[in-house]
Write a structure and sequence with these properties.
Elements lengths: L11 H11 L8 E2 L1 H10 L4 E4 L4 E4 L2 E4 L5 E7 L5 E6 L5 H13 L6 E4 L7 H23 L5 H25 L14 H28 L10 H27 L11 H11 L14 H6 L4 H17 L1 H13 L7 H21 L7 H51 L3 H12 L6 H4 L7 E3 L5 E4 L4 E3 H17 L3 E2 L6 E2 L2 E2 L2 E2 L5 E3 L2 E3 L1 H10 L12
Parallel strand pairs: 1-2, 6-7
Antiparallel strand pairs: 2-3, 3-4, 4-5, 5-6, 8-9, 9-10, 11-14, 12-13, 14-15, 15-16
């Protein structure tokens, strides 16, 4: 469906107009950070808002990316009157994809969400078109899963897409369509066989690669000196992979004989070689760092300043007064714009011109005493500037090394977290609370929504990108604490607890809070209250 089709389904006009009349007497902030626009849209507390560049904005129930030609999502109701969200399944650019991810994450998990080709669908025919588009995606995924020329990971993703699409079709039909007219597809009966076939083909491909690598490496090995130690390590890994892939193919072939015949591999010889190579490998050392040439030559740095100094020296020979003017200019400049290497060439020019004029009894623009004073002043400033530059360089180098160490540490923590290490996840969470700027891929690993207070103490920030004033958070904590202490509950029903541009949906008897897409447990709220100075640190475990 082309973008022009969206213009005829703009259902946000009437709704947003009524919201404007409702909020006409309540001036509100309408420009927010990009991360917050989606959260405010998900709350539906105000009729419109945008980011600073207007690349993301919403008007009533619909949120857009870079204009009305691309609606990202829209709030609507199903045939039972329940609120659902329709998301645009198309994409437009990398930035729009980021906006779509933010809009998807902003809606609370309890609200049903559907990815459709027309998120502005408003009648049975439009919803039927969305349903048939899902059926087409299901059939395409089925064909991709059976294509033996495709990569294994692509075929596995196709099978996952089939299951997810079938589940979405069932929910979408129950929400908007008549079940007698729109039938659901069925999963193929041979899907388990297809999955085994995918694994068999992938192992066969990897086995062929390993066999070719072994033929190439064993023909080149003549000894076991240090220069071949790395090659020996690779060879040992290849023998291990040979056994692993051939064994996996044999297991699959025994379970599904129709898939194919497992290859014949000499397992004993492979294991024997794998054991024999291990003791013969010796340490080679770290690879040579090839960036030393650039650092030693200073390309892009003092090389060009040296060239400028030579040009200025040539100009000074033809115009002696220019040397004096340059010296006075350097003395008047602040240190941030001061180039010591250029000032040093000016000092040399002053000394050479002074000696030349004294030898040939030529007039100078200034007296010899003033020349001496100018040289002394310039040398003092050059020395001070060099000391300051060395300190700045050392500071930048230490910051760079610290950033490298921090990035490596985050990388290790991320790898451990992906492997299910609970300690690594807690370390990442604590790093975010301490102020680390983590990307969404690491923040998605958090077990729950986190809170932190900015350095100035004026803003509370969530790990999902929302920001609220600390003063509002302090007022909300009073109500949360009262519910937790007296085992009371709160649900928005005419009365709201506003926190910045958001509001709290519910508070349970333990003090856990639901606000839009945020789920905040009492322990995290109590930790934030301690950071705001509302609770003593001794009570950081219970209320």
């Amino acid at each position: 469906m082309g973008f022009a089709g969206y213009q005829s389904h703009d259902q946000g006009t009437e709704v947003s107009a009524s919201m404007r009349r409702k909020h006409a007497t309540k001036p509100r902030k309408t420009v927010f950070a990009t991360d917050e626009v989606a959260h405010i849209w998900a709350q539906q507390n105000q009729p419109w808002a945008r980011n600073g560049k207007a690349s993301v904005y919403f008007d009533g129930p619909t949120i857009y990316s870079y204009g009305r030609h691309f609606p990202m999502a829209r709030f609507t109701t199903d045939k039972r009157g329940n609120v659902v969200v329709l998301y645009n399944s198309a994409s437009y650019s990398q930035q729009t994809s980021q906006h779509q991810h933010a809009a998807w994450s902003a809606v609370k998990n309890a609200t049903p969400k559907f990815s459709v080709v027309d998120c502005l669908a408003d009648d049975a025919n439009a919803h039927g078109t969305n349903f048939e588009a899902m059926r087409k995606a299901f059939n395409e995924a089925n064909a991709d899963a059976r294509n033996r020329r495709s990569r294994a990971w692509g075929r596995e993703n196709a099978i996952k897409t089939m299951h997810q699409t079938l589940e979405a079709m069932a929910s979408y039909r129950a929400a908007f369509l008549n079940g007698n007219k729109y039938r659901l597809p069925t999963l193929p009966q041979d899907l388990e066989f297809v999955q085994a076939q995918i694994a068999f083909d992938d192992h066969a491909k990897q086995l062929r690669v390993v066999q070719r690598m072994l033929e190439r490496k064993t023909s080149k090995l003549r000894g076991y000196d240090n220069g071949r130690a790395t090659r020996l390590r690779d060879l040992r890994h290849q023998y291990r992979d040979l056994v692993r892939h051939a064994g996996a193919m044999s297991r699959i072939a025994r379970t599904f004989p129709l898939i194919g015949k497992a290859p014949t591999v000499d397992y004993k010889h492979a294991l024997k070689m794998w054991r024999a190579i291990g003791p013969k490998i010796r340490f080679v050392g770290e690879p040579t760092y090839r960036g030393w040439a650039r650092e030693s030559t200073g390309f892009g740095g003092h090389m060009w300043r040296e060239r400028d100094a030579n040009d200025k020296r040539d100009a000074a020979v033809a115009h002696p007064t220019h040397v004096v003017e340059s010296a006075r200019e350097y003395l008047s400049e602040d240190r941030e714009r001061f180039y010591a290497i250029l000032a040093e060439s000016t000092v040399r020019q002053l000394e050479e011109l002074s000696d030349h004029c004294a030898e040939h009894r030529l007039p100078m623009p200034i007296t010899p005493v003033e020349v001496s004073e100018l040289i002394v002043a310039l040398k003092a400033k050059i020395e001070e500037a060099n000391i300051e530059a060395e300190r700045a360089t050392a500071k930048r180098e230490s910051e760079r090394q610290a950033a490298i160490v921090l990035a490596a540490e985050y990388g290790r923590m991320r790898k451990r977290a992906l492997n299910g290490d609970a300690d690594a996840i807690r370390e990442i969470e604590q790093a975010w609370r301490d102020g680390a700027m983590l990307d969404y891929s690491m923040r998605d690993m958090f077990t729950h929504t986190l809170l932190r207070v900015t350095d100035d103490g004026k803003t509370v920030e969530t790990s999902m990108g929302a920001r609220v004033p600390a003063d509002h958070a302090k007022l909300a904590w009073r109500k949360i604490k009262r519910c937790a202490m007296h085992a009371e509950t709160f649900t928005t029903n005419g009365k709201r607890i506003s926190v910045g541009h958001y509001h709290i949906d519910s508070i349970d008897a333990k003090g856990n809070v639901v606000a839009g897409c945020h789920r905040l447990d009492i322990d995290e709220l109590l930790r934030c209250a301690v950071a705001l100075g509302l609770e003593p640190r001794a009570n950081n475990t219970t209320i």
